[in-house]
Amino acid sequence: MKKYFLSFVEEMVLNPNYQGYVGGRIEVYVENQEYAVEEIRFFTKKIKEFDKFREKWDFQEVSASDLEEIKKIIQEKFNEKL
Question: Residue 35: which residues within 8 A CB-CB, separation 6 or more?
Answer without folding.
Answer: 29
